[in-house]
Every structure is written in C-alpha cells, then in structure tokens.
Amino acid sequence: MTLNDNFSITRSLPFGENGFIDTSGNVFINHRDAHGPERTGTIPEFDADKFVPINSSTKSFIGIRKPNSIEIRRWSKPEEIVTEVAYEKDACADEACGISSISAVS
Q1: What domain of life does the UniProt record list for this protein's source (predicted)?
Q2: pLDDT (tens digit per residue) in 73-88
Q3: Domain that holds residue 13
Q4: CA 40 to CA 29: how far, in whole Å?
C-alpha cells in the first residue's frame, strides 16, 4: 500500500483495496495490483473532521458530515453525491453523542 505524505484519512475498502484522502481532499484507491494509487477525484472543501466512515462489505462509500445531513459519495467518483442522509444534530443532550459511522446493508 502506498500513501501520500499528506494523507488525512485511510480506510480499508471491500475486496482487499485501500482508500485514502489527502489534506486537500484528493481521493485515491490502492488496488490489489503492483501499480501506485489511483486518484479518483476530489471532495470539494474537504475537512477531515467531517469524515464519517461507512461500513459496507460490497461497496466503497465516503460519508461527509454537513450541518443537518451526511453526504454519501463513492470512493470511485468522490465529486458526485449518491444520496444525503438527514440527521437531527440536537437529538442528544450529551456532547459525546454523535455519529461515529454508518453501516450499509447491501
């Protein structure tokens, strides 16, 4: 696996691949071959603190927290928003309460 010096997020993807996002929002996939990482696109206005892991055994998604929703994007096409999941930010009175990951069922 190859990572850029300025990587910000790294995740294991289905089928033995690995994905990473650098501090500028560039998205890469390390495939299972001997080639270097493939740059698949850029997430506009990327902030690593807004990243939400999405757990799926068959698909590679990225979650980006917005004020009242989470944008779901594909690792292979990060500029495109697949869907948005609404959530109630103030549903929990405790500051520690929040969204740590999303599990997708295929």
Answers
A1: Bacteria
A2: 999 999 999 999 887 6
A3: 7-91
A4: 7
